[in-house]
Amino acid sequence: MKWEDSKEIPWGFLLLFGGGLAITAGFTATGLSGWIGEQLQVLEGMNFIIIVLVSTAVSLSLRRPDPVVLYSVAIVQTGRLMLGMG
């Protein structure tokens, strides 16, 4: 790759994606991710489709955070919830 080629890279997207990964790593390292997963275990008996629809509606209604950051954190939390549900 030459320096001229780097001018065409979408640096804003790469920085936001990296920020999302950093936040996710911080949530996991501090245990916040596990705590949120434990709090979400009250949803254990609910239908999976309802959980996905509500999660999607909440994610779409939050316009303030960057979607890349929001989705990278949501993926980790959804995974923890699914592991907790068995």
Tell me the overall shape.
elongated
Q: How many individual β-strands?
A: 0
Largest sheet: none
State the low-pLDDT regions, or none. Answer: none
Radius of gyration: 16 Å
Which secondary-structure class do the elements indicate? mainly alpha
Number of domains: 1
- The H-and-E topology, N to C, reads as HHHHH
- DSSP helix fraction: over 70%
Beta-strand content estimate: under 5%
Overall pLDDT metric: 77
Separate helix tally: 5
Give the N-terminus to C-terminus distance in angstroms.
46 Å
Structural description of this entry:
The structure is a single chain. The chain has 86 residues and is mainly α. It has one domain (3-85). The protein has helices at residues 3-6, 11-30, 32-39, 48-61, 67-85. The model has no long low-confidence stretch (mean pLDDT 77).
